Amino acid sequence: MTRKRYILLVLILGALTAIGPFSIDMYLPGFPAIAKSLHTTTARVSLSLSGFFIGISAGQLLYGPLLDRFGRKNPLYVGLILYIAASVGCFFVNTIEQLIVLRFIQAVGSCAAGVASMAMVRDIFPVKDNAKVFALLILILGVSPMIAPTVGGYVTAAFEWQYIFVILAGIAVIVLMAVIFLLPESHQPDPSHSLKPRPIINSFWTVIKHPQFYTYAICGAIGFSGLFAYLAASPFVFMDVYGVSSKVYGWIFALLSVGFIGSSQVNGMLTRSYKSEQIVNVTLPAMVLLTLVFIAGSALNVFGIYGTILMIFLILCCVGITYPNTSALSLAPFSKNAGTAAALMGALQMAFGTLVSIVVSMFKSRSTIPMAGLMATAALLALLILIIGRRNIVQPVEATDQVGVGAH
């Protein structure tokens, strides 16, 4: 594969991966405006974010078998078209209930892009390159939190919050054209993958019972849910508790994203000298320590806005290094069932993320304690899962190994 082709494929897969997060980040600065427009509260508006997470979690389980049965591109077309239609629908909503439902549908469409991109990394690139490619996808993914909230803040201030969804629909149309004309089909349709409930359940069971998968997929998903605690709580924390404007919030969000993006690229350098397992063994305990400091400082009210930004920045650095390695280790044992494995991994991430975002919306405390507490809980549970689960991994398939083991 030529370098130019390599870069093109990474860019397209990165754009697919970014659709879901872009859909989350862009409308966050518009929460107060949405609440005012739809005659509801910011907490109620956050339920549209939870609805989005639920849609992604459920949808990924749907697309996994479809991607293995019909190839990668046809289900991807369906998902992107559904996403575009739901985005246009969000422009016309009159109630918060309508927005929640359409955001759910939008998420079901967007997760086709996320699952397909993860599976195609496993299809197209050697297993030894997977962690590096995942880190590059995070670099592209990082453009979303750097640009989306800032754009969303200015769009909300200059026009109306509804136009955010027009922009999202336009982005999806561009990505759809790139998929149609530039992205190759990486997995031919396989009729042996039945869509009947029993074989689908058996396929998922084959994946989830693999010790390496359930250890790193669950560990990674729980650890990653700390990011969702931040996403769901940050509009309230920065705009309500600290009183910043939607524009300033967008810039804070962009600044914090540098930690997530930059650390993921540091990970690319680390994987040249260390195995993914070794990296996770360092970054996850570090995340536990940082989150405990964060919750202690929040309880003592010693941080303020700048201290809060610093702590979140450092925690996101740990997430940015841990996530690509747990993802690569989760998928490393699979070749035949890569789509199913990617879907299940993504569903686990979104399931825990959804739970955390719903819990965040239940707190009424005017402080950072709920966010810090959930981030600390996620980090501690992830470390516990890693310690317990890796005892059951007899022959680990390292993410830098040359050949993955097919799951049959």
Task: Write a structural description.
- The protein has helices spanning 3-25, 31-37, 42-70, 73-91, 96-124, 130-141, 143-158, 163-182, 197-208, 211-241, 246-270, 276-300, 304-331, 338-362, 369-389.
- By secondary structure, it is an all-alpha fold.
- The chain has one domain (3-183, 197-391): Growth Hormone, Chain: A.
- Helix 1 packs antiparallel against helix 5, helix 1 (3-25) crosses helix 7 and helix 10 runs parallel beside helix 14.
- The two termini are 28 Å apart.
- Residues 400-408 have low confidence and may be disordered.
**Low-confidence regions:** 400-408
In whole angstroms, the N-to-C terminal distance is 28 Å
Number of domains: 1
Q: What percentage of amino acids are in beta strands?
A: under 5%
What is the CATH topology classification name? Answer: Growth Hormone, Chain: A
Going by CATH, the architecture would be: Up-down Bundle
- By secondary-structure content and strand pairing, the structural class works out as mainly alpha
Q: Radius of gyration, rounded?
A: 20 Å
Shape: globular
Strand tally, please? 0
CATH superfamily: MFS general substrate transporter like domains
Q: How is the biggest beta sheet arranged?
A: none
Specify the CATH class: Mainly Alpha
The number of helical elements comes to 15
- How much helix, percentage-wise, in residues? over 70%
Task: Report the order of strands and helices.
Answer: HHHHHHHHHHHHHHH
Mean pLDDT: 84
